């Protein structure tokens, strides 16, 4: 009998295929090596000649959330996919009869949306937007609180939406209004209420003709030799080569407030460096630094060379040209050299086009002189300088005593009525030490400042009230209130009565507090009675309208973005920018992320009672930003309608010496969180995840 081998023909075919593949690989090897050698980095090439930073835009996430604490303005929503999702989430969380809960007037189902920009980290905070589903019976979200909500990517196609993995979460007090109508009670925002679960790193993409493993490895080495920092006690480089196509790029802490600058410095790193080459480069670039036309890029080149170029940069501090001095001082700051601190402080005050960047550079330094300069700038009369310096200091040293942070809620550890010498004192102290300290509903700062009295509130990115100048008192007569909380003081009174109306069928009495007129104390008492941040902001804005504040009130007074910096410092151009081939930013770029160009463009010195009347004009800077931002590697160009603020500059308004009007009930005395503010300010909402100036400091201590 003849023996046969099963599948013999298949085995022979496989052997032939393997042999052919081996031959092809042998033949291709020398060619590949030749191409790699031809495209190896040259002596005069930098990282930007081989690769560019790709930021990959932003990721939209959403979820279905539950707003609680409504004062009879909530309601149910018809059966839908969103309702089924929320009922399922509530059931998994152990809530009994979730459908019954949704029928209550104290609750509202909302759709929660957030944008996650590339570069986001778990420590970051983003604004989230709330929207009611179609046919919802909810009348208002005012006074509500968004309970913890999971956020995922959602694909809306035919049939039921498809959800991806969880990327973030959101929760917090609701401030009503949206981009179209700041007083819309059926829409809302949670300031800084969104978080992400993981890092969303940047990518350094190799250009098509330079995509070789060897080049990727060389770029990784070059970047890591220049940029290393401690992470969990270990020194790690800023880049990691993943394939022959791209590297992951991390931003060092020192550059988190000006990330586009970091990307440009990375692209200017020389691929081939020796002591002799470095000496020649420093000498040539030092001459370029002293020329106002090339000083911006020259400072970046010297910064890329590291601390060894500090001496050449210090020569620029002696220039008669203020631009040269600023660019030299800025580069020295990112090298952590204190010699340019004075110039940066002077620039922040005198040169508005560079103000934001000068403050960012001061905040990037780990030098006592830089912090002292920021403290000094908090005394300036210009609110942009003042609040910008405060913001920078808070991110650098959040616990600095000069910030004047005040606790709002009482510490449970400080029990009243217990004698320290009593036998039970130790037991009570031990029990109280185990209690968690309650979290304040918002941040309150009373800054000991020598400048004129000012109150500043935030409507984007964070819930925060800053009072510049200690001892500021409300000016009577006053009748203020929000919801069930009322404030009353007659003319010439030295105190204010704060009442909380407690509707009850069981005879519970109203709560009454007798407080001094000091603004900080009044805010603390109101918050302890249950007022949310939107409620407190509405009361402050009503007080401003009624002339009850000793000084002006400002909202989101942040330094403005200025395309002159991008052109001159990063691109080395004076005219309108045409995108440099080396600088290929994406839709989530520095200018949009840092200065919120795609959202509301607030000049930061606007009184809240002046509405924004322009709703379609494009400013020159915004157009230039869009031009620079639209040439994104691998992404489609997008243009967004932007508004430009008609508010005046940042000078504080003069105090009104005229006789105070008779006290009258404010029109905004209703349970509508933020309504008073929305009636008196322009569109105060911002695209979620789009930080304003210095919000990018969030990675440092927030």
3D structure, described in words:
Mean pLDDT is about 75; it is low at about 1-5, about 25-30, about 410-420 and about 575-700. The protein is of the alpha+beta class and about 700 residues long. The protein starts with 7 loop residues before the first helix and ends in a 22-residue tail after the last helix. The protein is flat. Strands 2-3-4-8-6-5 form a 6-stranded antiparallel beta barrel. It has 21 helices and 22 strands. The longest helix is centred in the N-terminal third of the chain and has 31 residues, at about 10-40. Among the domains are: about 60-195, no CATH class; about 395-415 and about 435-560 and about 645-675, no CATH class. Helix 6 crosses helix 8, helix 7 packs antiparallel against helix 8 and helix 11 runs parallel beside helix 13 (about 370-375).
